[in-house]
Amino acid sequence: MSDIAIIIPARYASTRYPAKPLATLKGASGVSRTLLERSVMAGRKAVADFGGDVALYVATDDARIADEAKRIGAEVIMTSESCRNGTERVSEALKNAGIAPKIVVNLQGDAPLTPPHFVTALIRTMIDEPECQMATPVLRCDAEAVQNFINDRANGRVGATTVVSNRLGQALYFSKEVIPFTNGKGVVNGEVPVFHHVGLYAYRPEALAAYMAWEPGPLETLEGLEQLRFLENGHPIRTVEVSAPGAAFWELNNPSDVPLIESYLARMGME
């Protein structure tokens, strides 16, 4: 049994984008691949880059997604339809599969542009900081990304998540609004002060067990952000700053994100 497991939670019945894991995205070569396949490709690259013994699974409650995972050679763990978010699905997947890794990585199935080093940075943080129970990457935005965030909100779209952290590298808050307040500016005093929260988590099994014992709180419910359950219960989340020079990062949240992500795939030469 591997000490590290990367689990990709994928559900069919997304409120904003039904059947999202099966949506196709055209890469730089003109080849279309499903979002699930691109997410699994990102996970496999991270496994290869880490160079250690890491297991990779897709966790789903839908036979159509399971069939697609099997088509691309990914190992599948079936979960129930009652999972309310990816963290709950990852926790249930561990139980259903009877596995007990020391570090569990939740690689969200809607982030095909996730660089492998984002994943390995989390794993390294968990290894180097044994007291750390949960970690997530944050990426300082460029002016283009901030403007995309602002445009989404101005047009009534719920898109990417931003985060603010304290000086200890712990998250203070996550929001689908653009935080901190910049008065519509992408650059303030020569710096972009907005951090994009990358939908990627690493947990100790104890943190997952604690999460499952809590009910969703008002902030999690209002924002629709699963990680706020940790903060609402006083559980620290270590934020790991990552960078992606020359790369673009964006999640597939809405159908309108497809052309933007395809343009980024083309720009970065991702097949």
What does this structure look like?
- The chain is of the alpha/beta class and 271 residues long.
- Helices cover 34% and strands 21% of the residues.
- The chain contains nine helices and twelve strands.
- It has helices spanning 35-50, 63-71, 86-97, 116-128, 143-154, 205-213, 218-223, 228-232, 257-267, and strands at residues 4-10, 24-26, 32-34, 54-60, 75-78, 103-107, 134-140, 162-165, 171-175, 195-197, 200-203, 238-242.
- The strands form two sheets. Strands 1, 4, 5, 6, 7, 8, 9, 10, 11 and 12 form a ten-stranded mixed beta sheet that branches. Strands 2-3 form a two-stranded antiparallel ribbon.
- Strand 4, helix 2 and strand 5 (75-78) form a beta-alpha-beta unit.
- Helix 1 (35-50) packs across helix 4 (116-128).
- The model has no long low-confidence stretch (mean pLDDT 92).
Give the topology.
Layout: E1 4-10, E2 24-26, E3 32-34, H1 35-50, E4 54-60, H2 63-71, E5 75-78, H3 86-97, E6 103-107, H4 116-128, E7 134-140, H5 143-154, E8 162-165, E9 171-175, E10 195-197, E11 200-203, H6 205-213, H7 218-223, H8 228-232, E12 238-242, H9 257-267
Helix pairs in contact: 1-4
